[in-house]
Amino acid sequence: MTEVTIDNELVERYVLELAQHGAHGETGVWRTVYSPEWVAAQDLVASWCVEAGLTVRRDAVGNVWGRLDGTAPGRVIASGSHIDSQTPGGRYDGALGVIAAVVALRALREQFGRPRRTLEAVSLCEEEASRFHAARFWGSRAITARIERDEPEKIRGYEGETIGDAMRSVGLDPTRIPEAARDDLDTWIELHIEQGPILEDEQLPVGIVWSITGIRHYVVEVLGRSDHAGARPMDTRLDPMAGAAEMILGVIDIALELGRPAVTTVGKVNVEPNLAPAVPEQVTFTVDTRHPDPVEIQRLHQRQEELMRSVAERRGLRISWNIPLDLPPCVCDASLVALLEQTARTQQIPFLTMHSGAGHDTQNMAAAAKAAMIFVQSEGGRSHTPEEFTKVEHAVEGIRVLAAALHQLAYQ
Amino acid sequence: MTEVTIDNELVERYVLELAQHGAHGETGVWRTVYSPEWVAAQDLVASWCVEAGLTVRRDAVGNVWGRLDGTAPGRVIASGSHIDSQTPGGRYDGALGVIAAVVALRALREQFGRPRRTLEAVSLCEEEASRFHAARFWGSRAITARIERDEPEKIRGYEGETIGDAMRSVGLDPTRIPEAARDDLDTWIELHIEQGPILEDEQLPVGIVWSITGIRHYVVEVLGRSDHAGARPMDTRLDPMAGAAEMILGVIDIALELGRPAVTTVGKVNVEPNLAPAVPEQVTFTVDTRHPDPVEIQRLHQRQEELMRSVAERRGLRISWNIPLDLPPCVCDASLVALLEQTARTQQIPFLTMHSGAGHDTQNMAAAAKAAMIFVQSEGGRSHTPEEFTKVEHAVEGIRVLAAALHQLAYQ
């Protein structure tokens, strides 16, 4: 297996340059899809692609592709990630995967010339739901033909605008979205920051992802009866707060009991009427519950639903939920995972084969290509914050794994 | 003991007339202190006092007093309640106690002429914190000289105005507030709707209040560490939501275990950042905890504080709280309670001697006079809502107890 030399300084410079578009505070980024700063960032990526000797193409949703044509016909090997950010987010989430792909292709072209098979780097749009909640994974959904015909005029941003209007404002025609679909991809590799503490805890620079966790979001409504906090005796209350607290504690405990890699988070609670001296009428909370194993995730859901129903029944509360998000686990391509492990091992880059606890564009790309991911260490496990940070040495170790795998696939 | 005849129709008419000022929807009232509708309502009460043959006086904060001078010198026997409302509230909370006092004094004057001791009816202002949170019990605090000199210019309403400005806008001079203080009161009786379900459950029209519950409000901040909902393993989290849920369940369970009349309510929860896919950084919740017994309430506080501290410690969370409200139980005057019980018994009005789970102006008036309260049944235990309702027969039974007690005190 061939080693590819990666330029630390180039990686560092690209991180800082990209972070200037939508800079937020000292180290943050606020870059929502189709905003002026997002357009400027995509233009910058396009200019890097040109510098790298790649042919630039922008597809119908605004994904920027840089292509290095192979000498032989056949399906494409692609890598990339997204440049939209949380509001605010940091410099690494998504951005580092775009940089990695461009840097890897540049290094491969400079060091090995034209490949046998075609390589592409891509900068995807709206992975984070930065501006349009329902448009999450917009770029990778366009590539995999997963955008419904009515979405552009139906999906509205946090300020009420449609995504169709936002596209038109940057010169894109929403009716042409189907043209972004690709049926010629063979392999997809996404490099991304870990967003968790596991690699740091294990003092490893790189993770090879065997599965992207399944994610289900419940929005649970517990309805009781509002009462005066003083005048209604405890034993005759129908208190949705007491019920919700028992459910929240219960669903979290179930994930703890199942042990790693099961996780469950209650991140959002809304209380009606939310007044100190009133037993609430209704408590609404979210349950974000995840597991990378397709069988285990079912057990997790079943136990949590049973617990919530039984608490409601015992306490005389009405309960209902909806499930606005339900992504099954995405098990990565086993031979591609093995190839990534092999390239890391050969280059003596210490790694852990692990799952991803977060969702990624790769979940969609896996429908169109053999797919896997490379993680690099996140300091303190932080992400989705201006404080997220990845050491350049760790980033470069990840890019070396990526570049060597692309070499193996495209040049051998 | 003498019976006093109370006119059902007059009571019913007064309830409906008063509810027209600040009417909200079909049965609601939205009447904030010093608003035009509040001024109109106080004017109406003043006109009733005139009709009843009372001498009307408005004090320095706008409380309206109707006086029936006694033939003998000596301290005053007074009754009343407040006419400001929740936003929105109903027709009965507070208003019924003002109507009761005017109707009782009118009936006494009509049926028994001039009393030996002076009687007064009063319509107090801003019991509910209808417009100025920190001005709660404004009227009764003025009477008992409990308003600090800097409060008028310091206390701001929900729209930012000071209470001093609001007073000036209705022709009151805040610098004269000390003139509202009374040092000549002997006895205070407040009639009020129960605001809870106990009298309805027991099918009784009237309650005689032996103690007004002590109320403490905690605002508890539980600080953990925000993390990605997928990428951070459960066993390394510092999840303030799990901790808060355990505390909420725990403090509620302690009150349940202690049994009636202990009550504890968690009515308000705020989560930072309140996002479904993020372990929260901080969860803030209120604990409203009440007991009418001065010894038992201490035990309640101690057990709840110990529980919260131990949960935080075990989970590695930081916890702090402040106590924005801390009213000790107000035990009513025992001989006055006995007199009210006797007047109810003599008139064969079924009653329960009970505590008040809610706060009332009487807590302040008790500093200046022997004080007690009369409750009348609330349909469904409802209050602080446009749906609150008290049957006129129940209201009149309560007023008969009040009038007979005033007769006993002022005419014997």
Task: Describe the model.
2 copies of one chain form a homodimer. With 412 residues, chain A is α+β, with helices and mostly antiparallel strands. Chain A has 2 domains: 8-212 and 329-411, 3-Layer(aba) Sandwich (Aminopeptidase), CATH 3.40.630.10; 214-327, 2-Layer Sandwich (Alpha-Beta Plaits). Helix content of chain A is 35%, strand content 24%. Chain A contains 12 helices and 18 strands. Chain A has helices at residues 8-19, 36-51, 95-112, 138-143, 151-154, 163-169, 198-201, 240-258, 296-315, 334-346, 362-365, 392-411, and strands at residues 23-24, 28-29, 55-58, 64-68, 76-82, 119-124, 185-193, 206-212, 214-223, 227-228, 263-265, 269-272, 278-279, 282-291, 318-327, 330-331, 351-356, 370-376. In chain A, the strands form 4 sheets. In chain A, strands 3, 4, 5, 6, 7, 8, 16, 17 and 18 form a 9-stranded mixed β-sheet that branches. In chain A, strands 9, 11, 12, 14 and 15 form a 5-stranded antiparallel β-sheet that branches. In chain A, strands 1-2 form a two-stranded antiparallel sheet. In chain A, strand 3 (55-58) and strand 4 (64-68) form a beta hairpin. In chain A, helix 1 (8-19) runs antiparallel to helix 3 (95-112), helix 2 (36-51) runs parallel beside helix 3 and helix 3 (95-112) packs across helix 12. The model of chain A has no long low-confidence stretch (mean pLDDT 96). At the A-B interface, strand 9, strand 10, helix 8, strand 11 and strand 12 of A face strand 9, strand 10, helix 8, strand 11 and strand 12 of B.
